[in-house]
Amino acid sequence: MRKTLFFILFITSIPLTYAQQLDYFPERNEVWKEKLAKDYRIDKAALSNAVAFAEANEYSGSRDLRIAILKGFEREPFHEILGPTKKRGGPAGMILKDGYIIAKWGDTKRVDMTFSVTKSFLSTMAGLALDKKLIANIDDKVGTYIWDGTFDGKHNSKISWEHLLQQNSDWSGQLWGGKDWADRPPREGSLDDWKYRKLNEPGTVMEYNDVRVNVLAYSLTHLWRKPLPQVLKDEIMDPIGASTTWRWHGYKKAWTEIDGMNMKSVTGGGHSGAGLFISAEDMARFGLLFLNNGVWNKKRLLSNEWIEKAITPSKPNVNYGYMWWLNKKGKRHWDGLSENIYYAAGFGGNFIVVDNEKNLVIVTRWLEPSKIGAFMKKVNAAF
Fold first, then answer.
1. Which secondary structure element, helix H or strand E, spans residue 264, and what is its range?
2. Which end of the chain has less neighbouring CB within 10 Å, N or C?
């Protein structure tokens, strides 16, 4: 009896990110294997209802994303398109169970902008750097690695890698034509109020801000000493069998010199253009890697330790980790769904959702963003 009790306690104490072991990983260019709802005793009607909901609730913004971007961020002073954009397709998505497709809709091979979903890919570049000891400690001050003036000053010198990853650095400055204070300014106050405000101590207040995210991308580019798309390709996308169609762009003028070579510094989003352009299927592969705790077909690509850190709530915002959103009980909680769900989210309704408890990866594109909670409830009702 004592041995049985110990075993139960041991199993229930294992973090969720250690609990999944998948045996199916789609090869590059193969037809992704599918299973029927009945194979998992899933309610077929409820699953079909979830898919129909995603198809019926397309993002209301223009399919010309240049127009949608300018409209969506029109209140930002000096906002302009600085990088590539692309007209989008219609609603599309996939639901994977144990790696197998159990539902899909729309054109899952179409390459579209993915906006802030890019941030979860960017944070993974930091995770790889930590795993490979290019970063000694996530709490190290970034200025000890990037000493070109980007982190000079009383405030910026306090900023650690973790502060940048959790978006609570309050880094102050400008990069590639973007000013930190002009990116998603408060609803109250005026330009002078925003520009001359008192800075928050790093680690105390989360502020979603693409300029600061791009500072992280810039810093990681100098850390790796090569373009981040190359790092992503070599370390993640090729090993998981992703297609050759995805692209990761930066702003047109975002060039930096490293070791005597000009390199493009990419963005962590697309609200001024650029970011990751990718298909739903390649997004699903990325989600599947995280569902399986950083292991793809028995080959470890990311450490368990990194994934645990990435999905640990930050102190200022219980719903945010290292550029992954967390379904904890906070302002962004999806009522009735597991608190262990985490997800990447981008402008226009782009999502990669990882549900360890049900062994699911859900990718949905161009879903009206306010409808994601209702959609997830409908998916959940099928199980």
1. strand 261-264
2. N
Q: How far apart are CA 57 and CA 7, in angstroms?
A: 46
SS3 261: strand
**Cβ proximity of 271 and 351 under 8 Å:** no
Three-state DSSP class for residue 120: helix
CA atoms within 13 A on the CB side of 205: 8
92 touches 111 (CB < 8 A): no
Question: Tokens 């975002």 identify what position?
Answer: 254
Domain encompassing residue 36 = 2-380
Under 8 Å between Cβ of 290 and 355: no
pLDDT digits (tens, 9 = 90+) for 320-333: 999 999 999 999 99
- For helices 118-131 and 210-224, the axis angle rounded to 10 degrees is 30
Residues 6 or more apart whose CB falls under 8 angstroms from that of 150 comprise: 142, 143, 156, 173, 175, 215, 218, 219
Contact 318, 168 (CB under 8 A): no
Q: Which two tokens stand for residue 279?
A: 């298909």
**CA-to-CA distance for 102 and 18, rounded, in angstroms?**
23
Using alpha carbons only, give the angle 319, 321, 322 rounded to the nearest 5 degrees.
Answer: 150
Phi, psi (rounded to 5 degrees) for 374: -65, -40
| φ, ψ (nearest 5 deg) of residue 56 | -85, -10
Amino acid identity for residue 252 in this structure: K
pLDDT in tens, 76-94: 999 999 999 999 999 999 9
Q: Which amino acid is at 206?
A: M
Number of structural domains the chain divides into: 1
275 CB-near residues (< 8 Å, 6+ apart): 83, 113, 114, 115, 116, 118, 248, 249, 266, 267, 268, 269
Region of residue 336 (phi > 0: left; psi between -120 and 50: alpha; otherwise: beta): left
The one-letter code for the residue type at 54 is A
Q: Could you report the per-residue pLDDT of 98-137, keeping only the tens digit for each? A: 999 999 999 999 999 999 999 999 999 999 999 999 999 9
Query: Which of the four pLDDT bands, split at 50, 70 and 90, describes residue 192?
Result: confident
Residue 191's identity, in one-letter code, is L
Cα–Cα distances in Å, from 372 out to 76, 218, 335, 348? 25, 31, 12, 11
